[in-house]
Amino acid sequence: MTFEYTENMPHDDDDASDASSDVTELEEYDFPDHFFERDGRLFHSHGSLPYPLPVDGPEQARLNNLHRILRDTVEFHYLGPVTEVLSDVRNRQKRVLDLCTGTGRWPMDMARLFPRVKIYGVDIVPIATRRPLPHVQFEIHDITERFRWNNGAMDFIHARNIDLAVTDYPELLREVARLLRPGGLFFSGEIGRYIDFAHGSSFDLARQAPHARSFFQVVNRSLELRHLVPIADRIPSFIQQSHQFTVPTIQTFHIPIGDWHLNPVMKRVGKMYLAALKDFAESLKPMLREAEMTQHEIDTLVSGFIEDIEHVPGLVGVYHTAWARKV
Ligand SMILES: C[S@@+](CC[C@H](N)C(=O)[O-])C[C@H]1O[C@@H](n2cnc3c(N)ncnc32)[C@H](O)[C@@H]1O
Fold first, then answer.
1. 153 CA to centre of ligand 1 in angstroms
2. Which domains are present in the chain?
3. Which secondary-structure segment (H or E) carries 262?
4. Whose CA is nearest to atom 2 of ligand 1?
5. What 8-state DSSP symbol labels residue 245?
6. DSSP state, residue 259
7. What angle do CA 204, 210, 215 make, to 5 degrees?
8. pLDDT digits (tens, 9 = 90+) for 95-136
9. 53/37 Cα distance (integer angstroms)
10. For position 16, what pLDDT does the model report?
11. Does the beta carbon of 157 lie inside 6 Å of ligand 1?
12. What is the Å distance from ligand 1's center to 46 Cα?
C-alpha cells in the first residue's frame, strides 16, 4: 500500500522550497526505516534522537485525545492573530507549518478552517492520516535539521507539545525565524512536566499527592539523561532572547485532572485528561526501564501516580502558551 507521504521531498506547486527532488512515496516495506518494536511497543528508529515515547496505536490515540483536550481548554484551535496573518491581502500563497505533527489532527482541523492556505506537517514518523485534504501535506523531517523551505516562506509556525523532541530550543527558534516572513507568527504550546492544584499554593502537593509528585520527579530525571530538560515555562524567554520576535504574549491554562470540575465541558476534559495521563505513564515505562529501574519499581511508581490522580480532587496540568511575530 502506498502512503500519501513525502520524505523530505516537496511536491508542492509553489516556489517556497529550496529542494528540487521528486516525490518519494513511502511503501509499507519501508516501515523498518521508521519504526522498531521493544517491550511490545513501536518506537521511532532514528537512534540518535531523544524522543522517548512510542508512536504506535495507543500512543496515537493519546495524541488524538490530547488534541481535543487542548482545543477545549483553549476554546479554539489557535491563539493570537492567526486570521490576520493568514488573510489574503498580500496576494501570495499563505503557508502554515506544524512541527512534530504526530497524527496530524491539528493541520487537518486548520485546513478545514482555512481552505485557501497550504498547511504542512512534519514528523520523524509517518503516523498522520494517509488521506490528507488536498491543501495539507505531511512530510518526514527531523526538526533538529535545516528545513527545505526558503527564508520567509512561512506565515505561521505552530509548535505544540514538542518538548520531548528538542534539546536546543534556541537553535530551533533560529530556524523558525529564518522560515517566517516578517510579521509571520510563531506559536508554542507545552504542557508542563508537573501537576499542580487549581486553587493555588495553600494546597501542598508533597503532602496531598506525594506519589504524583515523585512520578514527575523521576520522569524528569530520566528525561534529563536524554538532555530533555523542562522548558514549558522558559519558551517566552527563549523567544525574547532571540531578538527575532516581538514581545511574546503569554497565557497559561489549567487542565483539570479527573471529574472534579463544576463546568460540564471542563468536567469532560478532566475525565479525558485523567485517561491521557494514565496512558502517558504507560508509554513512559520503556524509558524508565532503560534508566535502570526494576519492573517492580516502575510498577510501584506508576500505580502510586495513578492512585493520586484518580483520587485527589483539584489537580490540574498546566498548559503554557506563548505567541510572537517575527520582526
Ligand atoms: C507529543 S507528540 C506531539 C504531536 C502534535 N504536535 C500534537 O500536539 O498533537 C510529539 C511528536 O514529535 C515527533 N518527533 C519527535 N522527535 C522529532 C524530531 N526530531 N523531528 C520531528 N518530529 C519529531 C514524534 O514522532 C511525535 O509524533
1. 22
2. 2-192+228-254+314-325 (3.40.50.150)
3. none
4. 102
5. B
6. S
7. 125
8. 999 999 999 999 999 999 999 999 999 999 999 998 999 999
9. 12
10. 73
11. no
12. 13
